[in-house]
Amino acid sequence: MRATGQNRVIFSSDTGVIYPERAFIVNTIPVRIIHTGTQPTVAVAYPLHECDAGLFRLAMVLITLIATWMLTRTYFQTYLKSDQLKRVFDVVPQAIVATKAPATKCGIDKQCPENYYAFRIISGAANVVGPSMCFEDKIIMSSVKNNIGRGLNIALLNGSTGEVVKTGFFDMYSGDIKLLLKFLENIEAGTLMLLATFDDPATKLNVEARKIFTDMGSSFASKLGFRDNWIFVGGKGLKSKSPFEEHLKNEKQSNKYDGWPEVLEMEGCIPRKMG
Q1: How far is Cα 258 from Cα 253, in angstroms, rounded to an integer?
Q2: pLDDT-based confidence at 68, cuts 50/70/90?
Q3: Which end of the chain has fewer CB atoms within 10 angstroms, the N or the C?
């Protein structure tokens, strides 16, 4: 009796299951005795050809690749969903909070501290668009209110209460300087002044008027020229130069408009008593 070993698949006649086993050929008969429990079972051996083994291995590789792809896909879908949820719950509430933040007075960049006044001043644009002034979220001078004009536009306010005392505009190109001097007479200590120019602020401006503005904290009133742009916040009795002032010279080389410099804009918080 001669037995040789080969790679086989074993079919169990009892269980009906195919088992990969190392089978034996006995006298050219492909049989093997397999012990399952107490009784031996005859199993018929069928050859496992090389081509079948190759197909089997290929199938296993494909199954492994598909399983890996499905696991990876499931992982990234879960990750992306969690990331989207994170963005929804982390970013959107911040945006909602931002929209609910209280608006600032006069639309300035920051909230003013207690005992400070919020303001914004915009000068005129050439001789076309007039200036505007906002104080404590109220427009006190503008073209809409019909209380601005060519030259100097001035508002005087009570420094303690913030109430408007009076406003006026004065033509400094062809107007009467005496009207401006009359307006500036007897200003009480602690009074705030907001000023914005429109078109020409300086042709009729004399030394007396310039000194009044200088005494109220201006650094540029003494050198204001034809069609210069100027915005200013000062106070009666101010002991130092005002930090709220901007001036732009009328110069042909740098003018934004034909014959006029560009618009000036200033905003900030004024202490109730500038000193």
Answers
A1: 10
A2: confident
A3: N
